[in-house]
Amino acid sequence: MAGDAAFREDIRHWLEENCPASMRTPMATNEYPGGGRRARYRNSDTKVWLERMAERGFTVPMWPRRYGGGGLDKDENAVLHEELRLINARPAHVGMGISMIGPALLEYGTEEQKTEHLPKIARGEIWWCQGYSEPNAGSDLASLRTQAVEDGDDYIINGQKVWTSGADNADWMFCLVRTDPNVSKHQGITFILFDMATPGVSVKPILLISGLSPFCETFLDDVRVPRKNVVGEVNKGWTVAKRLLQYERTSIGGIGGGNQRGATLEEVAAKYVGLDNGIIADSVLRENITRHRMNDSAYALTMKRSVEESATGRAPGAVSSMFKYYGTEQNKGRHELLLSIMGTQGLGWGGESFDTAELENTRAWLRSKANSIEGGTSEVQLNILAKRVLGLPD
Ligand SMILES: Cc1cc2nc3c(=O)[nH]c(=O)nc-3n(C[C@H](O)[C@H](O)[C@H](O)COP(=O)(O)OP(=O)(O)OC[C@H]3O[C@@H](n4cnc5c(N)ncnc54)[C@H](O)[C@@H]3O)c2cc1C
Taking the CA of residue 16 as centre, how many other CA atoms within 13 Å lie in the half-sphere pointing to its CB? Predict the structure, then answer.
């Protein structure tokens, strides 16, 4: 256990008073506490929990107080998270604001940008989306062609983004644009922010076979954006873009390491396979679950150490690719294990022979396959590790 006893007592008392009972249950899949102007809450406690945590700066505990954070140091932050785990508290706030653009602004934003955006991110007032990928720029992101041309104090942006998660509900986009087409592809890219309500921005959800549309095509036609919305230097956006990806990859990697929502593997095994004298009856399954849990623990500890040792205390550098790679493999492995435990009950798509948790499990299993694509594919992470961490030749 980390930290000062008085601080821990204060946190424990505050959580006892302020965390609603329904927020101490596993997160429902249809309750996404991402905030934003268009947020709708199925459970009103989700909003209450977000507001109370934001009030204390605990949605972003380590950000400075002046930007809406809690101003905690890493030991205090560890205490807060231990206490949240002890009461099984749901995350009060999730999304690209707190995990990606917020940390990038803390490092690269102007004071004006920090003051304008960070408190709104901390309070969940604005939902952000990421305009990186384009029809011909995915793994080779630096080939992006969306163009921004200077016009007085503004840029005029034209082009198309794709796979923009949540763009149809987003309030603002952080976007990569080409500002100089006459230099090598990694140069001439600029990182810029704009309101999705700006004239010329249109969004078309991509309908998946599941009937859901988690991501969109985003079209940018003569979108006028003030120059002051450029983050970092004009034509040097690749540096900001790469750092943001490290935050994204650390965040995606975090889904491994036992951070998953819902029942544990042991609870599921007890239900579907049964226990013999209190232990899982099938010895092969027992061994597979134990191995998975040991890998989860070792991985979670390595990640914690590496994040704490990083310069910002929030995300390591190129090593974040290791977390992205391993964390997503662990998460996919967990879902495969769940399938082997649940058998055909883990493959239901609809109908009365499956309960809600079973139907959600099938969808979560399919969704886990995308983990090793989003935020940069596993192959790309291995390339980065080979080059930037192991120093192997191109
Ligand atoms: C669930 C989900 C959400 C997403 N959300 C967003 C979002 O919000 N915003 C956004 O901008 N993008 C988003 N993306 C897009 C994502 O970043 C891209 O899908 C990803 O970078 C891969 O690009 P691509 O799909 O064009 O595949 P490609 O780049 O065409 O790759 C195809 C295959 O070739 C392999 N490959 C490519 N180059 C190499 C290489 N040099 N070495 C080895 N193998 C290689 C890849 O690993 C992959 O298997 C999302 C994707 C998913 C799945």
Answer: 6
* Site of tokens 């603002």: 172
* Model pTM score: 0.94
The answer on 332 and 302 residing in a single domain is yes
Among protein residues, the one with the nearest Cα to ligand 1's atom 5 is 165
Domain of residue 162: give its range.
Answer: 128-237
> Are the C-beta atoms of 166 and 127 separated by less than 8 Å?
yes
pLDDT in tens, 309-326: 887 777 889 999 999 999
Structure tokens at 259: 């951070």
Q: Is 115 within the bounds of a domain?
A: no
| Same domain (yes/no): 217, 283 | no
CB–CB of 229/110 below 8 Å? no
Q: Do 256 and 299 form a contact (C-beta atoms < 8 A)?
A: yes
Helix (H, G, I), strand (E, B) or coil at 54: helix
Answer yes or no: is 247 within a domain: no
Please give the distance, rounded to the nearest whole angstrom, from the Cα atom of residue 373 to the centre of ligand 1. 5
Q: Could you tell me if 76 and 199 lie in one domain?
A: no
pLDDT tens digits for 377-392? 999 999 999 999 999 9
CA distance 136 to 372: 19
Helix (H, G, I), strand (E, B) or coil at 159: strand
Expressed in angstroms and rounded, the spacing between residue 374 Cα and the centre of ligand 1 is 6
Where does a domain end: 36, 68, 94? 94
Query: 41 CA distance to ligand 1 centroid (A)?
Result: 31
